[in-house]
Amino acid sequence: MPSALPDGEPVPDDGSLPAHALAGAAERPLGFYLHVPYCATRCGYCDFNTYTATELRGTGGVLASRDNYAETLVEEVRLARKVLGDDPRPVRTVFVGGGTPTLLAADDLVRMLGAVRDEFGLAADAEVTTEANPESVDPAYLATLREGGFNRISFGMQSARRHVLQVLDRTHTPGRPEACVAEARAAGFEHVNLDLIYGTPGESDDDWRASLDAAIGAGPDHVSAYALIVEEGTQLARRIRRGEVPMTDDDVHADRYLIADEVLAAAGYHWYEVSNWATTEAGRCLHNELYWRGADWWGAGPGAHSHVGGVRWWNVKHPGAYAAALAAGKSPGAGRELLSDEDRRVERILLELRLRDGCPLSLLREEGLAASRRALADGLLEPGPYEEGRAVLTLRGRLLADAVVRDLVD
């Protein structure tokens, strides 16, 4: 969750939504994102809305404490119930992210999930995920999560090489994420993800292959691999600017992506979104698919974003301000925007084109259709799906996905 928030119109104190946002809601899936904004240390590449104990000291008092955070977030879940009214939908997915959710006690995460279950109910096959730092969990912690209703877990691995982890300011020990996969399996988690990052300054092709091999060897059913983005204002950006570490370029990122796709495919992982691979259909992250397909989700927590029926809003960033708003009986929303039909058309192209199923050609205007024909001729779109009315990226198209999207949205 990036730290910068967009501008927008004010959110009503009671968080109420326009009537049109709830029209037809029963036909759309509903998910919950629960944001935990705490980290033990700040990674050098991270610009997410997270806070260490030092950063919070003196800025939020008791309201910003992680000790009572679960109860604060539960209050927003209760607010969501009031705002959505008699919405009959059980929740299809719950995703706890951060930050480092596993800095909270396992019972706190279970309590937050329990609030969603109590207020809305969970679908019988609901996917319930938490992110986890490999160093902040143990078998007992994982067992508590599993017994409490979590059935999917995502560990931040990033790399198997110590020197790469040091550049990223990651604190876990190489090998620990792989051990966590085994511990999660033993606790009863059927679905396990490992997150990897490629393109870190000083990382070689061999380093990247070693990370992929280690991740695959651990046996998760899902792997996410993201190119490192150096965000302004981060410690890593300052180090690169001072010349302390080199900056990788787009060609290096492309080479690493090709290695990832080759190695993962050979091991039985199939891409279903540009940066995500799973061994089975059941292993795909359903919560992320809600985002990519424009479904409804409520984001609870400081800085969290939500979307319901074409209305998108976001919460105040600071944990103290967030808690103070809820304590006063007000929505913590900082701003919102009402998406037009054109906004939603463009967003569908932006997001769905990244999926293995692609996006319908019917979404494209005349200029976009002309661009799609050029992309097809250039080998960026698959011919078979194109003949059936869908734009689906080839492997080369995935490497140039951002450029293809820009052309197709006119």
Describe this structure in words.
- With 410 residues, this protein is α/β, with parallel strands linked by helices.
- Helix content is 40%, strand content 19%.
- The protein contains 17 helices and 14 strands.
- The strands form three sheets. Strands 7-8-6-5-4-3-2-1-9 form a nine-stranded mixed β-sheet, with helices on both faces. Strands 10-11-12 form a three-stranded antiparallel β-sheet, with no helix packed on it.
- Helix 8 links the parallel strand 5 and strand 6 (222-227).
- It is globular, with a radius of gyration of 21 Å.
- It starts with 18 loop residues before the first helix and ends with a helix.
- The model has no long low-confidence stretch (mean pLDDT 92).
Question: What key phrases describe this protein's structure?
Answer:
heme, 14 strands, metal-binding, metal ion binding, globular, 17 helices, 410 residues, 9-stranded mixed β-sheet, Coproporphyrinogen-III_oxidase, single chain, alpha/beta, 3-stranded antiparallel β-sheet
Summary of the model, kept short:
This protein is an alpha/beta fold and 410 residues long.
Beta strand count: 14
Oligomer: single chain
Number of helices, counting only DSSP H or I runs of 4 residues or more: 17
Shape: globular
Distance between the termini: 28 Å
Broad structural category: alpha/beta
Largest sheet: 9 strands, mixed
Strand order of the largest sheet: 7-8-6-5-4-3-2-1-9
Helicity, as a percent range:
25-40%
Rg result: 21 Å
Instruction: Tell me, rounded to a whole number, the average pLDDT.
Output: 92
